[in-house]
Amino acid sequence: MSKMEQVADENMVKNAVGGEDEYDALAVPPNVELTEHALTPLIVAALKEIFDPEIPVNIYELGLIYKIDVNDKNDVYVEMTLTSPACPVAQEMPQWVQGAIFPIDGVKNVDVDIVWDPTWDPSMMAETAKLQLNMFT
């Protein structure tokens, strides 16, 4: 996969869509499965700080996170994928995700699984990611 270029940053997209609240509504990938838990928004915010090395968009809005499950003991399970099995950071990405979630106050354990089904494609991106990359699928 060739490196994609960002044509708009997050602030430009926020201005274009009408502000923070509108941006947040468009920043949710269409296929992500989230547990309703007090820690979930904090986990999402932490994952938005991790960027794909080849696509200048965070892994959450890129649609790489398929599931965030937080149980009643505050153990976190993340199911995610990569844009390609040949991703150069395939071995490091789970540790990046764990490293972003562990410091959140209250989190006990973090398990991250990389899955390949369904295969990632650009339709899994949040609208904000598509706007940042000037992609309309």
What helical percentage do the residues reach? 25-40%
Strand order of the largest sheet: 1-2-3-4
Counting helices, strands and paired strands, the structural category is alpha/beta
Based on Cα principal axes, name the global outline. Answer: globular
The CATH C-level name of the domain at 30-124 is: Alpha Beta
- What fraction strand? 5-15%
N-end to C-end Cα span: 18 Å
Order of helices and strands: HHEHEEHEH
Tally of alpha and pi helices? 5
How is the CATH topology of the domain at 30-124 named? GMP Synthetase, Chain A, domain 3
Q: Could you give a short account of the major beta sheet?
A: 4 strands, mixed
Q: What is the mean pLDDT?
A: 86
List the uncertain runs: none
Question: Would you identify the CATH architecture of the domain at 30-124?
Answer: 2-Layer Sandwich
Describe the structure.
The protein has 137 residues and is α/β, with parallel strands linked by helices. The protein is built from five helices and four strands. The chain has a domain at 30-124: 2-Layer Sandwich (GMP Synthetase, Chain A, domain 3), CATH 3.30.300. Helices cover 28% and strands 13% of the residues. It has a four-stranded mixed β-sheet with strand order 1-2-3-4, covered by helices on one side. It is globular and about 40 Å long.
